[in-house]
Amino acid sequence: MRLQRSTQRRGFTLLEVLLASALAVILMAALYVALDVQLRLADAGRESIEQATINRAITHRLEIDLSSGLGPVAPPIDNSAKNSAKQLSGPGNGSSGAASGTANGSSGMSGSASASANNSASAANSGSSTDTGAVTDATTSDSIPFQAGVIGTADQLVIYAARVSGLGKDIDDTGEKTNPADARRVVYWLTDKGLARQEIPWITSQDLQNSTDPYMEEGKEEKDYVIAEEVTKLQFEYWDGTSFTDTWDGRTLNTDGKTLKGPPMAIRVHFWLKVPGPNPGEMIEKEFRHTVMIRSAAGPAVADTTAATTSP
Question: What's the pLDDT at 75?
């Protein structure tokens, strides 16, 4: 009797097992690559958002400070013409008074009338000189640096701006604390810890009158004023209407010798942020640039083309 051979399989062959394992490995590798790409894109997007946030925060802070910057003040009034008029009017009045006295007086009193005329002229002259001195003293005053608006170099920016004083916020029950002023001095500079910013509400103190350097308050260091640790380099440029310069001093006078330069028309700031590089663990520096227009600027100098008028 012949036995029938069973066709039922009891397991997988070695070839099938190897083929299934290879397909599983390929699918796992493809899934890993997809996840890695997704994570890299997510990290790049997150870093881009962080960089944009830091960039926007720094430029927004600068725009706020510069938008409230103080502009140049009007030149002092020239009182030389007034002084000359007073000096000329004094002797004239005295002479007319002496002449009236002589005409109305008798011949016997001519000597006293002449003496009276001389006394009147002397008094008028002395009064004129006194007025001149008073005017000169009134127009002579110390320069006020915060009216310059902007004083800066390539790596430091000083802004004199107006702020709401916040009356009553800094007064305690004893009344010992004083109110902050409505004029502030804001300084931007670079430290080894990053970009620093300092705002001082009392800019008329003796320590700040003739200095533009950051003032270290008691118990504080430079690191306490850092606002962006990611900044590694800093550079300022100042637009005068024709070109950019590396320095600016609003306290200097214009070509007319009377008006102050005040703030520039625009300030361009360059700063570099430390960001991750293309390779794992690598850090690179990326440059950001922004230009801020200043509303309180006096504008470019315009030559006076007004023709001199002469009387017929």
Answer: 59
Q: Token pair for residue 240?
A: 């005068």
pLDDT over 90 for what percent of the chain? 26
Is-contact 200 110, C-beta < 8 A?
no
**In the block, which residue shows the tokens 């902007």?**
150
The torsion angles phi and psi of 214, rounded to 5 degrees, stand at -60, 135
User: In angstroms, rounded to a whole number, what is the distance separating the alpha carbons of residues 44 and 38?
Assistant: 10
- Distance CA(282)–CA(179), nearest Å, equals 49
- The residue whose two tokens read 């509303």 is 295
Provide the H-helix boundaries in the chain: 14-67, 80-104, 110-139
User: What CA–CA distance (Å, rounded) separates 227 from 196?
Assistant: 6
Nearest to 57 by CA among 161, 194, 193, 184: 194
Predicted confidence (pLDDT) per residue in 141-161, tens digit: 444 545 678 999 999 999 988
pLDDT at 296 exceeding the cut of 70:
yes
